[in-house]
Amino acid sequence: MTKRRNHSNHNQNRKHHRNGIKKPKRQRHRTKKGMYLPFAKNLKFVRKGTLKAKMEKKKNQEKEMEVKSQKSKIPKNDIQNLKE
């Protein structure tokens, strides 16, 4: 008896490209499943702390901008009087 063909790749490339070969969808957030639990918990606290620091920094910048805008509104005569 003759050997039978066990596998053929005929037409497979055409079938794959018919609908286009797409990259896998990337998720917005990686899953924490299987992650070392103490590390995952610490990560949560770290993110919360950095967010808090960013908010404080933003508030300080807004205050500085207000002070600068108020200083620019003071007439030059008043500034000279303040120096003396």
Automatic annotation (TrEMBL):
Residues 1-38, 53-84 are annotated as: Disordered. Keywords: Ribonucleoprotein, Ribosomal protein. One of its GO terms (cellular component) is ribosome. InterPro entries: Ribosomal_eL29. The keyword Ribonucleoprotein applies. Pfam families: Ribosomal_L29e. Residues 58-69 have a biased composition (Basic and acidic residues). Residues 1-33 have a biased composition (Basic residues). It comes from the Eukaryota. Belongs to the eukaryotic ribosomal protein eL29 family. This is 60S ribosomal protein L29.
